[in-house]
Structures are given as C-alpha cells and as structure tokens.
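Q: What would this chain look like folded?
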Amino acid sequence: MKNKKNIGKFNNKITNKSKKLTKAATKKSNKPTKESNKPTKESKGNIKNIKKAKKVKKEIKKPKKDIKNTEKLKKAEKAKLLKQIKEVKEKIREKQLQKKPIKKVKISQDKGKLKPAKPEGKLKPGNLLLSKKELNNKSELGVKKTISREDTPKKESKGKLKPSNLLLSKKESNSKSELGVKETNLREDVSKKPLGVLDLDKGIKQPTKQPTKQKGVLETYEIEVDKAKVKVEIKREASNITYTLHTPEIGIATAFLLEEIRNELVSATTISMKEITDPAAFNTIKQRFMQEASSLIQENLPNINPKIKEFLVGKLMQDMLGLGEIEFLINDLNLEEIVILSSKEFVRVYHEKYGWLPTNLKIAKEDEIINYSNIIARRVGRQITVLTPLLDAHLVTGDRVNAVLYPIATKGNTITIRKFARDPFTIIDLINNKTCSLDIAAMLWLAIEYEMNILISGGTASGKTVLLNCCMPFIPPNHRIISVEDTRELMLPDFLYWTPLVTRTPNPEGKGEVSMLHLLINSLRMRPDRIVLGEMRRKEEAMVLFEAMHTGHSVYATVHADSAAETISRLTNPPIEVPPNLLKAVNLNVVMFRDRKKGIRRILQIAEFEASQDRAEANILYRWIPEQDKIIKHSESSRFFEDISRNTGMPQTELDKNLEEKKKILSWLIKNKIRDLNDFGKVMNFYYTNKELLIKFINKNNVKAVLGR
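A: My prediction, written as structure tokens:
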C-alpha cells in the first residue's frame, strides 16, 4: 500500500513539473526573438481571423454610437435655430419699443368686431409678439394678428416723405413671416372695409431704398407723375446697360378695389370730345378726376395712409387718361426716345447719357398697344385703324408720336415717342454745352435781327429743330411769325407774335387733308414777317419757300443734309430740284452734327451760298475741329455782311460794334445763369424796346431790373 501511495505522489510531482515547464516554455515563446518575428502561415491566418472578428464587433457597435450622435446633432441644430428665432424676436421688439406701442387685438363677444385693447401698464417684450399657440387659437376664431403701420420702422425725413418709408422693408417682412405673424393695417376699419385694408399692405409693395450704391449701378433717381413716385435704376449687367423702373406691385384685392373706383368715375362723369382734344381742357379734366378719385378712395378706406392714397390716385389717372406705366418714361427728363416694339419685347429708351437701353417694362398684350395708339389719335382728332395703320401725332405734352399697326409692322404693333424738353433749350444752353460758340450766337442774332434767311441742315436727331427753336427769340416782338409743321415741335416765348399751323392727314375716305403746301400758300396771305417751316421735303414746298424769300419774307427752315456742299446737292437735285440761281436767297447755312460715340451735338459748319446760273458753291465761314472740340473761323465772308450793310446802310465798323454789344449781353446772361425761355425772351424784348437802358442795367449787373422782378 505504501508503495502505491509513493508511486501516486511521484506521478503528481511529475505532472506538476511538466505544467511548470510548459508555462515557462510558453513565456519564452511570447518573448520576441529573431525567429518569432517572422510570421508563419498558421500565425498569419489566425491574425486575419482575429482582425475580422474585431471589425465585425466594431460595426455592430457603430450604429448605436451614430444614432446617439445624430440625436445630439439634431438637438444642437434645434438649439441654434431657437437662438436665431429669439434674436430675430428681440430685434423686432427693440425696434417696436422705439416707436409707438403696438395695439393688441381684443375680440368682443357681443358684436364680433375687432377692438383695440387698452394697454395694461407698461408693455413687456413678451406681449409684443404672439406665441404659436395663441396664433393657432386666434386663427381658429378667424382673427389675424395686426400690427399698426405706425409701428413699422420709419426714417425721420425732413420735408417730403419718401415712398420707401411707408411700408416695411423686405428683411423685416421676411423675418416676421418666418415667425408666423400675419400683418394687416389697424388704422383701417376692418369690419367695414375688409377688401382694401387686408390686402393693401401686401398689395402695394414699395421698392426698398438701399443706403449704399450696389455694384454695377451707374445712376439712380426718382420720377413723379400725378404725385405717384417711382425709382429708376440704371445698371451695368454683363455686357450691356439696362434701365430698370421700380414700380410698386398692386395686389389682387387692391386692383379689384381700383377697378370698382374706376367704374364709378366713368359712370359719374361725362366728357365731351372737345374737352379731350383741347390740351387746356384736358388738364382741368385730369384735376377733376383726381379730386373725385381721391374722395372715393377716402370713402372706401377712411384711414388710409396719405402717401399710398396719392399713389393709388396717380395709378388710376395713368390707366384712365394716360398710357399706363409708359407715363413714367414720358416724364423722365433724361430720355429722348421711347420705343414700344411689340408685346413680345421689352420697351426700349434712348437716354441722353447712355444711349439706347432696354427697360424692364413689357406691354402685356397687343390690344393694349392698339388702345394706346387710339388714345393718342383721339386727342389730336385723328384715327388709326386697319385701313389707315399709320399715325403721326403728338401728345398733350408736345412729344411727337408715330404708330404703325400689324401687319404693316410685322413684329407687332409699334409706337415711337420722340420727347421734347419740358424746359426748352435756349442759346445760352447751347453755348454752355459747347454746341455753339459765342461768336456764332452773336452772328445768328445779327442775321435774324436784320431779316436774313437761314437754312439749318443736319442728320437725324442732330439738333436742327432745337437750334431753330433757340434762334426764334432773336426775332423782334413787333414782327408776325407763322410756323408750318407736320407735328407741333416749336416752343416760342410769350412775348412773340406767333401763329403756329399744323398739317392734317386725310380721313379714310380721302377727304379733309391739309398739306404743308396748302399751309405755305395760305401763310403768304396772312401777311407774315417771318415764315418758319418745320422741314423741307418736296419740290412744291421748296418752290413756295424760295418764292417767299424772293418776295421779301424772312424764311427759316430745316433740311436733311450732312454738310454745306451736300445741302446744295440736296436742294438742286430730285426730289427737291430747285434751280441753282435761287440759292442766292439763302444768306446763311448752319450745319448740325451729332457724335453718337461721345453723345454730343455740335455746329459743324457755318456757310454762305455763292450761286450762278448753272451752279452753286458753299463758302465755309466757321467749322468745328473734333480734336480740340472747338469751333474756329475758316474764311472771311464774301456776301453776308455786304448784304446786311446794303439793306441797313451800316458800315462794317458799326456791324462789328453791334456784334461786340451782342456778345456782351450774351456773356452777361451766361454769367447770371439766365437761361429760362421766358426769362431769355424778356431780355430780348427789353433789347428791342429800350436797348440803352438794358445795357445800363447790365453794366450795373441789376438782374431784377432787367427781368422786371
């Protein structure tokens, strides 16, 4: 038994030693050795499996982490949005607190009308805006939160109010719409007139004024028509310049209200054809309509903002008695031409500074263009139809209009408006802008004073009519003037004895025509001292005009030609074809030039005609040098001063003295900036009635005495 026990102990010792040895061997194997650093195939496989297992565990754990992260991100974004909303609310509250306190809306259970609640103590920021729950509750009851127009931020303006101050800016309106606040005007009686009130602020969106000049904006200014103001912005976009007219937008409800008022005005008032065609009567009609429209708007909207009321009245006048938004372009003093090409294209304008520009205006339908043409035609007692698709007329403002209907104009119905200055140019303006020099102005004055015949030639829109109009005040006040034109363009001062005549086209039956030839022949029977012809086009007209020159009448006319030599060629060849020997009657020829690149107009040449039996030549007295932008003397006169001295008996020394005297008067007018047409006319009238006293006042620089103020 003992032996068995000993054997068992011995075996146990052996097993324990073997375990220790195996542990020591494993520890040694874990230590890095040169051989162990080299991985075997089995170890490689095991390592790969271990890595795959770890990746799988990570991928299993990842979604839980991602879900937690996304939830955290959402919470952070919500917190940021809430902060932004709070900041916007605080800004609105601060702006509102600076102005008058906002009236709260209270619902009276008896009558169901909106009543302003009495403010309880001081206003708190929390009371200024409704919460979402309150908004939902009030929207269920059919109540909109209202904010008074007085509470909107306004700029303190001295003098006239600006339209941009009337309504909220875009930023403020956007911020309030994000907060879910609906705005109406508390100043209106909502229960009585909900139509105009609830949509008025939304329906008329005034263009916001920008304090700083934007990139690409070349010029901005305002236009006012019938007390309605709009903003004009000329800006460079890519490769071209555009003319943008910022007009307030009219909402559906506001437009419906204006349509109702318009129908009431039409039914309540009656206008005769005589009143429409007479410009003076037309202005009185317009004033009457404006007063009635203002009272109707006041009845419908008793507490309307006065500035918005003025705009709505102006809008009604433009739609009823004018040409809609085109009226703003007509009243832009910087524009020379307005062209409506068709309803498919934008309206184009010719700006005196930037040339031809596309606008942002487009006529909605071709019928509207036809309607505009009919309005213009009715005012001058004419008509434009499919049978007579051409119209040459003028507006009440004096601007010249040409209209052509489809299909003669293949793109669509076309209207071209050539604008004339509301404040006409005088010779002082032409001297100031270098169109004319002081020497030439004095020479023209001398020629007109002593009844010399002048022919003004030049290209299209070169300034022929402008120069002709500037020379007319030089005529003495006791001389009778008769002007003959296709459309009325000349504007003379009040002191002149002037009878303007205008041609008339035949009716659809071919009757009732009054041509320029008829008027020229008739004018000779009216005992004129001076005859002014708008434009010489045909042989018959030219023959009558030269006949008038030879019978002792002083004649002034315009003709299309680019130089003095071309003027002779134009007159002596078809279609005018005047015999060369008749050109002796023309004492001076003034040639106008227009530089389209620089946008300037200049007197190119002053010439006199030397004619024989078979031919005529031009002797150029003055010419313009483009390099120096200066008018210089080219040669001496061969017959101009000789003709004046022969007719008046004045020697050359006295003529020179007279020219210096005229230069002195013109220089004094330039120095004192007397350039208005009627003021200039007063000075000319003073010169012919009491020249010595005028020079005495000029020497003393007594402006008030000269102008009679």
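The first strand starts at residue 105 and ends at 107.
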